[in-house]
Every structure is written in structure tokens, then in C-alpha cells.
Specification:
The protein contains three helices and seven strands. With about 160 residues, it is an alpha+beta fold.
């Protein structure tokens, strides 16, 4: 009886431990949408990437959902058709237009690198962080369109992610 009770207790503790680990793995990283605000882990990203908080030992990790404005995009002919990727100088010039909102790019995808959800695999883009809610994004879209520089700009809900496998 005592050994059965001990076995049940150990089994219960193991299940609770596994559940806690699984829950911890599914937490989503907070997006760092302001390029000038402090953000833990920023040094782990390239300058053109939208940063988000994630654990140091994470191999695959996603951010919370956010909204962006896609400013420009291009379809790649082949997986390594990188000449359509956006130049860093262009991104930096656009960043000056929106100093409080990170301008970011998805350049050629590389295994183990950054990815964004809700984007086709053969697309590269230049976007700007627009907020956590659709209403924030719709309001920011008006600011983007007021520049007259991005006539095809559109709101997109997405997540950012790291796949270090």
C-alpha cells in the first residue's frame, strides 16, 4: 500500500513537472517595437530584424502576435534569389520616417534564422511595427500612407520567430 502510494505520488509529480515545462516552452516573447527602447536580447538579432524577448537556451521560439505594415515586398524566383532583398541603407532611410516604430526586413531566408508567420516562403518584405492591436495598426497605416511613399502599404498580423535547429 505504501509503495503504491509512493509510486502514485512520484507519477503525479513527474506529470506536473512535464506540464510546467511544456507550459514554459509555449510562452511567447514580447515584441520590441520601439527601436530605441531597452529590450533584453537585442544583441542576438541582426539590425534589420524585429527583436523580441526569448530565453537564452531556446532553439525554436516565437513572439507574441503583433501587427505590421508591409511597406514593400517582392517574390523570389528561386530560394537563393537574394538580389530582390532590401538594402540596409533603404531600411535605415525609412526608419528615419518612423523613429518610434521598428522598420524591419525579411531578407533571404536561411536555415536557423529569423522567420515571420503569415508570409509566403518565397516572399521578402520591408515592414514597420504597427502595434499589438488592429486599431493601433489601422491608425498607424494612416501615418504611413500620409508620407505618400508607400501606396501599396497594408496591415498584416504576424509573429516573429527564431528557428535555431
Amino acid at each position: 500500500m505504501r509503495s503504491t502510494l509512493l509510486s502514485i505520488t512520484l507519477l503525479g509529480m513527474t506529470i506536473l513537472s512535464l506540464s510546467a515545462n511544456t507550459a514554459a516552452q509555449h510562452r511567447l516573447g514580447k515584441i520590441c517595437g520601439d527601436p530605441h527602447a531597452p529590450c533584453g536580447g537585442r544583441e542576438q538579432f541582426q539590425p534589420w530584424e524585429l527583436t523580441f524577448a526569448f530565453p537564452r537556451n531556446a532553439v525554436v521560439y516565437e513572439s507574441e502576435y503583433f501587427y505590421s505594415i508591409i511597406l514593400k515586398s517582392a517574390k523570389l524566383k528561386g530560394q537563393n534569389d537574394c538580389e530582390k532583398s532590401f538594402a540596409e541603407d533603404d531600411r535605415l532611410r525609412i526608419q528615419e520616417l518612423f523613429p518610434k516604430n521598428k522598420v524591419f526586413a525579411l531578407k533571404c531566408s536561411e536555415p536557423g534564422g529569423m522567420f515571420y508567420t503569415n508570409v509566403a516562403n518565397d516572399i521578402v518584405f520591408l515592414g514597420v511595427y504597427a502595434g499589438k492591436t488592429r486599431s493601433q495598426a489601422d491608425l498607424f497605416l494612416k501615418t504611413v500612407k500620409a508620407t505618400g511613399k508607400f501606396p501599396g502599404a497594408a496591415v498584416r498580423r504576424m509573429k516573429a520567430g527564431i528557428n535555431g535547429t
